[in-house]
Amino acid sequence: MLDYDLIMNIFEANKIDAVIHFAGLKSVNESIAFPLHYFENNVSGTVVLLKAMQEANIFNLVFSSSATAYGAQNTMPIREDCILNAPRNPYGRTKLIIEQVLHDLAASDNRWHVAIL
Predict the structure, then answer these.
(1) 89 within 8 A of 67, measured Cβ to Cβ
(2) Is the Cβ–Cβ distance between 71 and 86 less than 8 Å?
(3) Is the pLDDT of residue 82 over 90?
(4) 95-111 burial, b if ≥16 CB within 10 A, otherwise e?
(5) Residue 91 among the catalytic residues
(6) How many secondary structure helices (H) and strands (E) does the chain include?
């Protein structure tokens, strides 16, 4: 995820219309022990991916987020229309930050079509 040149080589060698982004570290406990590793891989890696997508004119993305981005909720099950709320761990914060980046990106350029799971 952090290797822009490798991603661009993949995009240039293949006809790609959309990216399904499930790449990311996902252990809550590990994220607490190694938060910088999680922010670098999950957040910075996603930014690298998005820059490569933009350069390759690929503007369709499905992103796998997490219910942890909703933080503590008073009702269960957590519904998608719940307010995203202060996640309790670095893993959840990385997912929330990525969601915010994607919302800002899509708002800035109508070529982007983003679905967040």
Answers:
(1) no
(2) yes
(3) no
(4) bbbbbebbeebbeeeee
(5) yes
(6) 5, 3
Q: Which two tokens stand for residue 48?
A: 């690298």
Q: Is the pTM of this model over 0.85?
A: yes
Q: Which residue has 């269960």 as its token pair?
A: 76
Catalytic residue among 4, 38, 70, 91: 91
pLDDT digits (tens, 9 = 90+) for 36-51: 999 999 999 999 999 9
CB atoms within 10 A of CB 72: 9
Cα–Cα dist 24/64, whole Å? 9
Alpha-carbon span 98 to 116, nearest angstrom: 10
**Buried-exposed string 9-43: b where 16+ CB fall within 10 A, e elsewhere:** eebeeeeeeebebeebbbeeeebeeeeeebbebbb
